[in-house]
Amino acid sequence: MSDIPTDAEAVSGWWRTSIIDMAPGKIAFRGRPVEELIGNVSFAQMIWLMTRGELPDAGQAALLEAALVAGVDHGPQAPSIAAARMAATCGVGLNNAMATAVNMLGDVHGGAGEQCAELYYGIAALMDAGADLPQAVPSGLDNWRSRHGKIVSGFGHRFHKPVDPRAPRLMALVREAAEAGVVSGRFAEIGETVQAELARQRGGRPIAMNIDGATAVIFCELGFEAPLSRGLFCLSRSVGVLAHAWEQTQQGGRNKGPMPPKFLPRYEGE
After folding, report:
1. Superfamily of domain 44-256
2. Is 155 helix (H, G, I), strand (E, B) or coil?
3. In sequence order, what DSSP letters do the residues of 80-111 get, joined into one string?
4. 27, 51, 231, 267: which one has the fewest Cβ atoms less than 10 Å from its Cβ?
5. What does the pLDDT look like over 147-164, one tens digit per residue?
């Protein structure tokens, strides 16, 4: 029998997926017919199914949903939201305005959750290798800073000092989930110990665990790999982006820039 694929085999094998089985009259996600999922699973459960290949239990889904709800918006002062609103005044559709915003969610604005998850997983790896938590946290911070710099993603906030109001609520939900056996609570301990260590390094001045630090705890507790933290944040923030783009569309305005026309950028040339 020839090992050379036929044209049909070559075409059908060009893309390979375990996510969807789709044919005329058939749609199944991860082996589950779509008609059985519609009306029976939540959007958070669907996100889990699509990214992880299985359905979460109710407690896992509730914790994921809490993280998604917490990150939906942070106002027009957030660069991505501002960009979406500006795009909406330029005559583009909602999808274009949303894409403008999501494309801005990079390492500096939007990527902190992924970076914080990397920190937490790095500390957990040190603990798995034999270090206790008080030893692993400073070492993990040193390792992380050697790659990313001195500012630790997930901690500190330019507006919310000394407390980001979203983080304590999320951490309380993690603790409840740990008590119920939904998650281990290990990454909650890691996150809070990192926060305490950063405060110690600042001479005792408190520092907020921000939304990225708290959602990273949840994503790690639920077993999502670090890069998915950014994708999940993009899904969450897209809700706020949509709302702001639609609101701006309703308000009207044309070609709105980043500041009112009477204010001009400072010219520093000759």
Report:
1. Cytochrome P450-Terp, domain 2 (1.10.230.10)
2. strand
3. HHHHHHHHHTTT--HHHHHHHHHTT-BTTTB-
4. 267
5. 999 999 999 766 767 878
